[in-house]
Design a protein that fits this description.
The complex is a heterodimer of chains A (about 325) and B (about 650).
Chain A lengths: L2 H13 L2 H30 L4 H7 L3 H10 L2 H33 L8 H45 L5 H34 L5 H14 L1 H29 L3 H33 L20 H14 L19
Chain B lengths: L26 E10 L4 E11 L6 E7 L11 H6 L3 H7 L2 E9 L10 E2 L12 E10 L4 E11 L8 E3 L2 E4 L5 E2 L1 E3 L2 E3 L14 E10 L3 E4 L2 E8 L4 E11 L4 E4 L3 E7 L1 H4 L2 H11 L3 H4 L4 E7 L7 H19 L6 E5 L11 E3 L2 E3 L14 H9 L16 H18 L14 H4 L7 H11 L16 H23 L1 H14 L7 H12 L4 H7 L8 E11 L2 E10 L7 E7 L4 E6 L5 E8 L3 E6 L15 E3 L5 H21 L4
Helix pairs in contact in B: 6-7, 6-8, 7-8, 8-11, 10-11, 11-12, 12-13
The chains are: A mainly alpha (about 325), B alpha+beta (about 650).
């Protein structure tokens, strides 16, 4: 399967799950309202009866933000960053929860959304996906360490030099490398999630390392799929930016456009899962024994070794990609 | 160098003061210096002639040895500001006075000792005291011969070396300023600049031949020594109070002439002359040689540097009188030499920019216009920067803000990760300098008053805020209170009256009162010497209908401690407008109206004169509430947070 084919299949799948978009949009919006509602109340109370509001309506004046900050008790300000982090962390947990359902839908036979399938997938996969998220933090930390190391190298080479250009160009290159590594880790863990859900497995380390092997052994197709969706996301952002510029101060239209963009971001997020799920299933087809079993809401976890063996056999018999052993760092049914 | 042989004892009308209509030329320096690039050091000898213009005999001289601030970690400067890693890594700097002798007379070297007029730090060696065997009588002068060795630090706080770049500021023994109360010769502090008397500098510099050199003053002569591979240049400048120079083989040197005939239209000249109430001939500018020493990697910004410098020459000249010197040199420090950037010296300023710096970021334009402005505020009007930094930094920030806003307009917010113009890409709002100054002030509006010894502010941030942005905002408020034409005349009068002299804050206030014809003492007492904040607020507003008549009430409150008369404008729904002025003396005031229409809006300070008011949001009231803004902003925040959450959830 080519990346374009996977993306096309993914688009078809995502477009069949509009109720799932709604779930994601509601979850995102409820969390975001925690920030937006205080802003609404604050602005209403401070500027609702102020003539300054007319001028601010046309163009935001940072002086207002500073006035507000300077009038806000330091304790409140200092509590804002931890609160924001807690909010983000809670949302990441929620995202982990929802991912289980979304991937369950995209790896089901007909890729069709049903509340039972989705919510059962959410509940059933949460613990394993959460463990996987913790593992992914190690990988992200490694990327940050690489970034810091590269920065140190740049400093030692050009930091005390007389020209800025080499360090600046190097900085851009470093940024590019770090972004690529972040994308790579992201992609690897997307496949690990898909693998855990599609195969109904619990070994998260094994899934993570197996996905590393899968991604690198099928790099053109996995990276192509990831990059293709990324480009689509970039294009949507470009369109949104153009439209936003054209709308100017039209409040209602701007709100509608902004929410349309949020929905498009959700669509892209789901497309990552869907496209990658298509690619994964093409590279390492699901063992027949698991079809219909792993995806059943209350279905038991499948035995590990037979699943791998069957997956290998299925892939080989399909004449397709490398058998399951190809995605394992060790031998089939290895000890990882 | 022409070493003298005897103690000069000449009357006040001496050679130091010949043919000069400004303040007295109290000092004359003849310095010969050689740059040793291997040792990162300057070998120098100095002949200093100092004139006692006081009414008392002087039996002791005091010298600034600024470079000793970087001698070790026990100096007052480094105790206050912390020790940069570069110094710890072997980049210490210092100055040793190896010989000090009265010309043709006693050797004073052994009697040199260090004093600490500002603190009890016995380890600080930035001020030297030299007792004299015979006092210098009023009106007499003394000539000293001084040999010194200056080891430049790895560039820190405006001076030093980086690679093959050298910026020599505060590099020679410099005599303090004698005032009626005695020597004004402060130690070098982390939060302070300088103070010195006016005079003549003739400096001969010897550097490797491949070095491009820039310096205070006019290049009088140049001599190459092929055998030694050195070049010796002599720079001379009168009516300045400092001398700085720079050298590097990397500089691109570009020279152009500021031509007032081309830069200033007849209409502009007439407009400024009318504004300031002076004949057009007095407003006329003169040609100036502009020298730019720029890094090769910034060659694409040469035009931007010259445009900014021309902007400074033009507008500072039109506002305060023509720039009187023949040259102005702009130095662009290399990458890593930024500590030398953004600094003013007489006829030489240091700027600073980045490789491929986008336009509309403020660099290098802001720093060039600002540092050039210091030729007027610090250079020509030489206030004591140790004790009243606002008089140069604050007035210059006020002037710079006006000019930058007029010529360049608003700037992008400083959000440039990896040097990329992200603020522009993201469509963040742009700000002008009035906004920027006010925002900075709002962060710490009560930290300190403006007039204070530089080293006695609460911290470095408060020093910066109360020396630059807060006084700039205070002066913009004063301008709006007095009116622009009056303020223009105040500033020009103050500049012209105090050129080549040392004014203090009361001198500025006296000029304000004189030119405006008003007693502005209450303003300055509160906003210059005080730290109370100004905050007026619309309190309760009501319109009650009784029959066909509305009985309306407006209450205005004073939330801050500062008191200043304020205008109030009340609009009614039938178009009627009532204006009131409140003295602000009590905590609140009530106005009552009756009429056929209810109140539509109330506005405090409708002409926005009082920029020092810390809360604009509460300065007005409208009967019909506005919901759109809250909805718009809340919706924006909603979508930003949604997008951020979606980005964060990629981790899940």
């Amino acid at each position: 399967m080519s990346p374009l084919h996977a993306i096309a299949q993914g688009i078809r799948a995502v477009n069949r799950t509009k109720r799932m978009w709604l779930v994601y949009w509601l979850a995102t919006t409820i969390f975001a309202l925690v920030c937006a509602l205080p802003v609404w109340m604050l602005v209403s109370s401070t500027l609702g009866h102020s003539l300054w509001a007319d001028r601010l309506m046309n163009e935001f004046d940072p002086q207002f933000a500073v006035e507000l900050a300077s009038a806000t008790p330091a304790a409140v300000l200092s509590a804002m960053a931890p609160a924001a982090l807690a909010l983000a962390a809670a949302f990441v947990l929620l995202g982990t929860f929802l991912a289980g359902g979304a991937i369950a839908v995209f790896t089901s036979e007909d890729r069709a959304y049903s509340p039972g399938l989705f919510w059962a997938g959410c509940g059933k996969n949460f613990a394993r996906l959460f463990r996987l998220s913790l593992i992914s933090l190690l990988f992200y930390a490694a990327v940050l360490a690489v970034s810091a190391g590269l920065a140190k190298v740049g400093q030692s080479l050009w930091g005390e030099g007389m020209e800025e250009r080499p360090l600046r160009v190097y900085g851009w290159c470093r940024l590019g490398v770090v972004l690529l590594l972040l994308f790579l880790v992201n992609m690897i863990f997307d496949y690990a999630k898909i693998r855990l859900v599609a195969r109904d497995r619990r070994e998260t380390w094994r899934a993570a390392l197996g996905s590393v092997a899968l991604v690198f052994r099928n790099f053109r197709r996995t990276a192509g799929t990831f990059a293709g969706v990324l480009v689509l996301g970039g294009m949507l952002w470009g369109v949104y930016t153009l439209l936003r510029g054209a709308l100017g101060n039209w409040v209602v239209q701007s709100i509608v456009l902004a929410q349309a963009y949020v929905v498009s971001r959700i669509w892209i997020k789901l497309l990552f899962y869907a496209g990658e799920a298509e690619m994964y299933l093409a590279i390492a087809p699901r063992p027949e024994a698991l079809v219909g079993q792993a995806l059943s809401p209350a279905g038991p976890a499948a035995p590990e070794a037979p699943a791998d063996v069957q997956a290998s056999a299925a892939a080989a018999s399909a004449g397709g990609e490398a058998p399951a052993s190809a995605e394992e760092p060790g031998a089939p049914g290895g000890t990882l | 160098m022409r070493p003298g042989r005897f103690l000069l004892a000449v009357p006040l009308v001496c050679l130091l003061e010949t043919a000069f209509a400004g303040g007295p030329r109290i000092v004359s320096y003849e310095i010969s210096a050689r740059l040793d690039t291997k040792a990162r050091a300057i070998q120098g000898s100095e002949t200093l002639t100092w004139l006692n213009t006081s009414a008392a005999e002087v039996s002791e001289l005091r010298f600034h040895l600024y470079m000793n601030a970087f001698r070790n970690d026990r100096s007052t400067f480094l105790r206050e500001g912390g020790v940069p890693d570069r110094l710890k890594d072997g980049g210490w700097g210092w100055i040793d006075v190896r010989r000090m002798q009265i010309a043709g007379g006693a050797d004073l070297t052994k009697s040199i000792h260090f004093v600490h007029p500002d603190d009890d730090n016995a380890d600080d060696r930035t001020v030297a005291s030299v007792p004299l065997p015979r006092p210098v009588k009023p009106g007499q002068s003394i000539t000293l011969q001084i040999d010194f060795y200056t080891r430049l630090p790895h560039v820190v706080s405006r001076t030093g070396y980086h690679g093959d770049f050298y910026m020599a500021g505060q590099w020679f023994p410099k005599i303090g300023v004698l005032q009626p109360a005695g020597w004004n010769c402060h130690q070098f502090h982390a939060n302070s600049e300088f103070f010195a008397d006016y005079g003549r500098y003739s400096v001969t510099l010897t550097t490797p031949s491949d070095y491009v050199v820039g310096a205070t003053g006019v290049l009088e002569s140049r001599r190459d020594d092929a055998a030694a591979n050195t070049t010796t240049r002599t720079f001379v400048q009168e009516d300045v109070h400092d001398f700085a120079w720079t050298a590097s083989p990397r500089f691109l040197r570009i020279e152009r002439t500021f031509d007032p005939a081309r830069e200033v239209s007849a209409r502009e000249l007439a407009a400024y002359a009318a504004l300031e109430g002076i004949p057009e001939a007095d407003a006329a500018l003169q040609p100036v040689r502009m020298i730019l020493l720029i890094q090769p990697e910034h060659a694409d910004q040469i035009e931007r540097h010259f445009r900014a410098l021309s902007t400074g020459l033009k507008y500072f000249g039109l506002m305060y009188g023509a720039y009187p010197y023949r040259t102005i040199t702009v130095v662009d420090p290399p990458f890593g030499g930024g500590q030398a950037g953004g600094m003013e010296y007489p006829t030489l300023i240091t700027a600073g920019t980045n490789w491929h710096e986008p336009e509309h970021t403020g660099n290098p334009e802001m720093v060039i216009v600002h540092e050039f402005g210091h030729q007027f505020w610090y250079g020509m009007v030489g206030n004591n920067e140790f004790e009243e930094a606002w008089l140069d930094e604050g007035i210059n920030s006020y002037s710079t803000s006006k000019i930058l806003d007029k010529v360049y307009g608003s700037w992008d917010l400083p959000v440039r990760p990896w040097g990329l113009p992200v603020a522009r890409w993201a469509g963040l709002p742009r700000i002008d300098w009035d906004q920027a100054n006010r925002m900075a002030y709002l962060f710490l509006p009560k930290s300190d008053s403006i007039v204070r010894n530089a080293w006695e502010f609460y911290n470095g941030t408060s020093y910066g805020l109360n020396s630059y942005m807060h006084p700039a905002l205070m002066l913009r408020t004063l301008e709006r209170v007095l009116g622009e034409p009056v303020m223009a005349r105040v500033m020009r009068t103050y500049q012209q009256r105090w050129r080549y002299r040392h004014p203090a804050t009361p001198d500025f206030i006296a000029v304000v009162n004189e030119v405006s014809g008003r007693d502005m003492k209450p303003f300055f007492d509160q906003f210059l010497y005080g730290s109370n904040i100004l905050d007026y607020k619309v309190g309760d507003v009501s319109s009650n209908k009784k029959g066909k008549i509305y009985e309306s009430t407006v209450k205005i409150r004073r939330e801050g401690e500062a008191v200043w008369p304020v205008d109030i404008r009340i609009r009614f729904k039938n178009g009627r407008v009532e204006n009131r002025q409140w003295d602000g003396a009590y905590r609140w005031v009530k106005y009552e109206f009756t009429g056929p229409a209810a109140i539509e809006s109330v506005e405090i300070d409708p002409e926005h004169k009082l920029l020092l008011d810390v809360n604009f949001a509460n300065n007005s009231y409208r009967a019909e509430p506005v919901y759109g803004l809250a909805v718009k902003w809340a919706a924006n925040v909603l979508s930003w947070v949604q997008n951020l959450l979606l980005a964060a959830s990629s981790l899940s």
